Amino acid sequence: MPTSSDHPDRLTPLVAFGTNPGRLLANTYIPDGFQPDGPLVVVLHGSTQSAEGYDGGSGWSELADEYGIALLFPEQRIANNFKGAFNWFRRGDSGRGEGEPLSIRHMINDVVTEHAIDPARVFITGLSSGGAMTSVMLATYPEVFAGGAIIAGLPYRTANTVMQAIYRMKGYSGPSDRQLTALVRAASGNTGPWPTISVWHGARDRTVHMSNADSIVRQWQQIHQVDGPPDSVEQHEGFTRQTWCDADGRVLIDEILVEGMDHGTPIGAAGARGLGREGAYMLEVGISSTRVIADAWGLTK
Length: 301
Description:
Elements: E1 12-13, E2 25-29, E3 40-44, H1 51-58, H2 60-67, E4 70-75, H3 99-114, E5 122-127, H4 129-140, E6 147-151, H5 162-169, H6 177-188, E7 196-202, H7 211-224, E8 232-236, E9 239-245, E10 251-258, E11 265-267, E12 282-284, H8 289-296
Helix pairs in contact: 6-7
Organism: Paracoccus liaowanqingii
Protein name: PHB depolymerase family esterase
Keywords: Hydrolase, Signal
């Protein structure tokens, strides 16, 4: 796994951010010359990873240097979870106004205010437990985010205990699609626009079964009123992308399944547009999910 020694001194600790009920750590990366009204991406690491390690593997701060993107890296403490995973399945850490979600909301508010971020251009992404916590944040604070990208994650509130989380990760049972959608609707009482949803998963993921990717899509289809089969299915070298769009052709949900990939974040480190470094759960498949996600969010124009 990439470590901070592989990618030294890129991130700056965020020392104070609200009441921090989830007792999380936080780091930021603000590139030189960052302009007011620029975008912010919140990046959530997976279990056994650190913020520095995930940044080094995914290449987010490298991309931030290219395009002037502010970054926020919430980080779990081992004292909260012995694997360093976000506690996406705990009731006290999966609701609006409490626990880890509120800590992350406080971090975002601090960075948006301090660096004059455009509040309409705040995005979030994460891997594994960070992907599942991305689902939590998109459901509990949808008004905060323009879009989210869930990598090898799980639907919102698919589990409430450690044992349930293990079963859901393996693809066993769980709430119905209708129940999962109702949980999102009840999580915030949102009446405004909803964030766009991007779902990434390895077709051979042995840690989080790929059925979870389909469940995330179905959880959000009724929210975005795009029930039914995808509007398009694109076959690319190494991955398949399905999209669900509004009447104007804007992509509201997409699902990217990476051929032959196990559990992790897809990276493409080679070439002029390469980003990041291969490591544990940072999988070289010739596709930089970081760059593709940023492209889709309009951050690289």
